[in-house]
From TrEMBL:
This is FBXW4 protein. The keyword Cell cycle does not apply. Gene3D superfamilies: 1.20.1280.50, YVTN repeat-like/Quinoprotein amine dehydrogenase. It comes from Thinocorus orbignyianus. Residues 6-52 form the F-box domain. Keywords: WD repeat.
Amino acid sequence: SSSSPSSPLWALPEELLLLICSYLDVQALGRLGQVCRRLRFLSSRDLLWRRIARGCLNSGFLIPARKQASTVGASRTPSATGLRAAGIPVKERVKVSQNWRHGRCRRETVLKWKCKQVAPFSSSFLMPWLELDGEYLYLSQAENIQAYPLCPDGPGLQRHPQAIFSGHQEDVCRFVLVNSHIVSGGGDGSIVLHKLHGSYSVKFSAHEQEVNCVDFQGGLIVSGSRDRTAKVWSLSAGRVGQCLHTVQTEDRVWSIAISPLLSSFVTGTACCGHTSPLRIWDLESGQLLTCLGTDFHRGAGVLDVFYETPSLLLSCGYDTYIRYWDIRTSTRKCVQEWEEPHDSALYCVRSDRNHMIASGSSYYGVVRLWDKRQTRCLQSFHLSSPTSSPVYCLRFSTTHLYAALASALHLLDFTA
């Protein structure tokens, strides 16, 4: 018996035992751990499960080939997979990853709010946006951004905000959380910069119409607007709020993102003309570098863009496709694409920078999970019924997914 102290198995060095165990799959490792306490301890070592975790969905680990490239811009925003992953054993992360793959989760509506009244007998839905870090969830509601503490010992978040960031005269359209700063664009055409821990804030007039999207990195802000321009702004001492470049996009700008290398930025536009809705511009000069894709249908605007690495980019929008671009190989054609099964526009997309993609659809609050190694949708969750609402924004950690709809914030807890 392997559990016997005199078994030849225990005469082997631990390094050799670990090497033997490294050839086992998940099921075999689990069965090995049921033999005896000693083998349970051995089969639970992080070293064995880390290899398996790299092939799992949203486990917090990257495959080695992408690890270096993916961490180039790691300081840009909190890594989706890094949130709440600290202290979780690798074996437990693999278990939670199986819940993601099979759609096993607990659903909860953690916040609700009323529609914003704009005139008698009519109403306008708020279009909330959100960001996550290790301790807080930041949610835009009307003119404010509210910081809700995440519960440290359980799922969900506290129901009352610990801080409120204000400054806009109209609704916040989008905002980003970078390096202890919040940068937001509003329907009043202004940009507001807040320091998370302190009273410092800056506001300046940016566009003639609403600022639909913003990004911030390396002391520079890029913004896109309905006024058909994208602008680059300085935040250096003595030049705060100074416009460095104005890019004439000839189309409404719905989404924008700075490359992790800080050399360029990408714009996603409405595609109402004959130009590509996805274009990359030089950050220093404001000149057009390249257009991504060809033969886009009129109106197939890009609503969200996301850099995984300096050369890998995700996009989604009105034409119901998620597209995966590798700028090193081709700018004319994406390397992969996934079609929304119910022909709905896609409002938002995020990835774990490894195998998993999460997307939000325009009808009935549908969140979908995708495995890049497969062509079909892996799992779908309908969060809005019977009233239809888009998923305006979603963010996730290794254990939880948050989705902002027209009048509620939903939580999917995959630890359950």
